[in-house]
Amino acid sequence: MGSSASTRRISSARKVEGPSSLNEVHAGGPLAEGQSKPLTKDDAVVVPDETDGGPSQPKAIASPNSNGKADAQNVAIQQEGTIDDASSGTLTDISDILLVDSAAAKAKRIEEFSDEVKQCLTLVKANIKHIQDCKCFPCTSCLERMDAIRTVSYNDDLDLSAVADGLGIDTDYCKMFAYTWKKGDMVQKLEDADQQEELSHELTHMFTFYNALLGSGWNFTDESDYFCLQMEEDGCLSLIVDWFLHLVKSDTAMNKWVDAMIFEAINMFQNAFRRVPTLTPKHHRAVPALQKFGESEDSLTQTMAFMTLAKLVKKEEADKLSTNYTCIVSLLSLLKKCLSNPDHKAESRRKSSKEKIGKSIIIHAEELVKSVDDLAINDNNKRLIVEKGGIPILAKLLQQDCSVEEKTSAANGIWRLAFLKENKEKLRKEQGIIYNLTENSQSKNENLRNACMGALFEIYESKLPEGLTHKKTDVESQQRAPSDSAKSRGHIMLSYKWEHPSKPVMREFKKQLRKRGYNVWMDEDHMMGDKIGAMAEAVENADMIIACITRGYQDSQDCRTGEKRFTSSSDQCQSSMCKRS
C-alpha cells in the first residue's frame, strides 16, 4: 500500500497507472491520484518450538532479483520459503530466510540496478546527508529535500522495487528516519498543538517534514523487503510503536495533525508486516494502540488499524479482534468495489471531521481478501463476514478472470470461514463455489491447489462427496500408495509448519526414528500432486503423530485441518508433551 501522496500497490502483477499532476497539493505534499496441535490415536508427542515467539531480529536477507527469485548461490528455499542447505531454490517468503551471505547478496542486488536507479539513489543519498548534517533542522531546504525523496517514492516511471531495495541496502535513509524522529521535542510540539488554531510557521515545517517522512516510508515499505528489514534494524519501527503507546496512554485528545501522522504510520506497519511476517512478534506490544486506533471516527483509519491488528495478534488472542461491524462492512464494501473494476482495484478517500484535507489511497482486491482471512481467525468475525455477504464476494475471486494470487487468497479465506460449523452448511449450498474450488484444485499452482483442496476438505469435514476427489496421475498414485508393510503396521507422522527451525528439527526426528526401524511419514517425501489429500491419508493411517508446535503451526490452516481429520478418525485421543532440552 502506498502513502497519501501516492498509492497502495498491492500486487506486483497489477501495477497502478502513473502519478497525476504534482500540482495538486495538500497538507503532506503532492498527491499522485491513481497510484496508488494434532492429537493421536495412541500417545502423541508434541514438540514445542523454543522460538515460538518468532525469530530474533533479522540482520540480513537473501537477494531477491527483479523476478522475485533468490540468488541460488546464496540461499536455497523450498516451498514456503524454508532455507534448507546450499542447494538452489525459489524465494517465495523472505520472512523465513536465515542469515546466509548478506554482503554478497546485497552486492549482487546492487549490480542489478539500472543506471537510472543508481543515479536516483545518488541524488537521494545527497538529500539524506543534507538532512542529517543540517544545523537548522527542519529548515526550508530540509523540507525540499524530504519532499524530493517522497516524490521519488511514488514515481512510477522508476523501478521502485529496485529504488526501495537500494534505500535499504546502500543508503542511510532508515538512520535518517530514526535520527529526525528523535530530534528534540518536535513530535511532542505537534501533539500539543491546539486543534482550533492554525499551526505556527515552525510547526508547519515540522508537520510537513514528518508527514513526508512517514509518507515515503509508507511507500518504500510497500516495495521492498530489504527496506522493511532495514527499518527494523535501525529501530524505526520500534520508535513508532513507542510513539503509538505514548499516544494512547495520554489523556489528551489527538489533534488532526497527529491523526494524519498516525494514518501514515499504520499503513507503513501494514506493509512491513505483510511483506515480512516474522517482524510481527517483535512488535506485538503495539496491539493496545492499534485496538485504540480501531475506534477512530474515521472509517478508513479504523479499517487499516484493524487490518494491521489482525496481523499482530496470536491465535489465542482472537478475542482482541472482537467483532468490528464497521471494519468488516468497510472491507467487504471495498472488496466489492474492487471487483467491479477490470483491474480489481478501488480508490478510497480518508476524510474525518477533524481534518479538512482528505487523502486518497488505491486498494487492491488481493490484499483486502487477505485481510478478510486474517480477521476471520475470530469466530464472531467468521459469522459476521458471512452474514454481510462475504461468501458471494469470495466466490467471484475464484473465477477464471482472477489472478492466481486472488484465487489463492479467496480459497484460503473460504477455508478459514469453513471452520465454523454454521458456515460449512452455507458453503455446501453454494454450488458455484464448490465447482470453482474443485476446478482450481486441479491447478498447476501448488499454493492454489492446496488452498482449494483444504477448503473442500474443511467444508465437507474431510469426507468429500463422490466426484470431488482429486484425480491422481500414475506417478502420484505410485508415490501415494503405501506398501503392504506400511498398511499393516501403520507409521509415525511428523507434523509441523514449513519454517525454520521446525523443518530441520523434524528432519532429525525422521532420521533418528528410521535408524531405529520405525516407518516415518514426512510431507517433504510426498510433495507431488494433492498434498492435502496425501496428508489426510497419512493422518488416517498414522499410529502416532509427532508435532512441532509453533505460532506458525497454530495459525496454519492445513495443520488445523489435518488435526481435525485425525481426531475425527480416532476412537480415543491422548496427548503428551515432549520438550527439547
From TrEMBL:
GO terms classed as biological process: signal transduction
Domain called TIR: residue spans: 492-561
Biased composition (Low complexity): 1-10
Segments annotated as ARM repeats: 389-432
PROSITE patterns linked to this entry: ARM_REPEAT
InterPro entries reported in the protein's UniProt record: ARM-like, ARM-type_fold, Armadillo, TIR_dom, Toll_tir_struct_dom_sf
Pfam families per UniProt: TIR_2
Region (Disordered): 1-71
UniProt xrefs under SMART domains: ARM
Protein name: TIR domain-containing protein
